[in-house]
Amino acid sequence: MHLERLISVLEAIAIAGRPLAANELQEMTGLPLPTCYRLLQLLKEQRLLEDPDSNNRYVIGERLVRIAFLAKTDADVCAVTAPVLKEATREFGEAVFLSRFRKNGVSIIHVETPADPSISYIHPGLGYRPMHACSCSKVIAAFADDAFRELILNGPMKAYTDQTHTVRHDLEKEFSTIVKNGFAECVEEIEIGVSSVAAPVHIESAGAVFSVGAIGPIRRFTAKHRRALGKNLIDVAGTISASINFSQHN
């Protein structure tokens, strides 16, 4: 069966852990050599395999790695990242949260809050956030590919408060600022009196499919405080990225 042969090729290359040529694949699978050549080419065309050195020796491709990663459950990701979020919460004295890109939006999937009962904080809640009006989603949108960003800019943009950006030009300008600064801000765009800052979490072969943010009252989240948090969250995002990428390979 054709599908079984494709799977056997992918499994053989994954198990080998090194680039394989068609003749080596033939020895491992027992498939006819012409069939190996044909299947390798087909899988390469679909980006499930790659020929990194252009020498007809193949490894698992970016698309297959991305598919495998996106299959990870929220629970798996949260288990790996919770210690990093807890440390950031302790350092910042603010609630810190992790968000994940979905098919057409972003959802907050995990929140860590200050353990010190004397510290007041705002809990962001879990679940969906609009792509145009929250730091955790805007920062993912800003670093997304052009086609997806166009969908956001051309789509409906609900005004949650008077501070929500609902005009394409304004959002385009903000996306450019986010890319330049490396983090996004939300100043009373979802709820009056509430502000947040978020940085993108870049994952190998998947891009910025997560973000890490901090949230608090506007009286505490001054422009100076938001800038400082943004820079610190970039570092936190790097640590989270390393943790997730490490878990992928182990």
What is this structure, in a nutshell?
This protein is of the alpha+beta class.
Overview of this protein structure:
With 250 residues, the protein is of the alpha+beta class. It has 2 domains: 2-60, Orthogonal Bundle (Arc Repressor Mutant, subunit A); 69-248, Beta-Lactamase (2-Layer Sandwich), CATH 3.30.450.40. Helix content is 48%, strand content 18%. It has 9 helices and 8 strands. It has helices at residues 2-16, 22-29, 33-45, 62-70, 74-92, 135-142, 146-154, 168-181, 223-248, and strands at 49-50, 59-60, 95-101, 106-112, 127-129, 184-187, 194-203, 207-217. It has a 6-stranded antiparallel β-sheet. A hairpin with a 4-residue loop joins strand 3 and strand 4 (106-112). It starts with a helix and ends with a helix. 36% of the residues are buried. The model has no long low-confidence stretch (mean pLDDT 88).
Name its key features.
250 residues; 6-stranded antiparallel sheet; 8 strands; alpha+beta; single chain
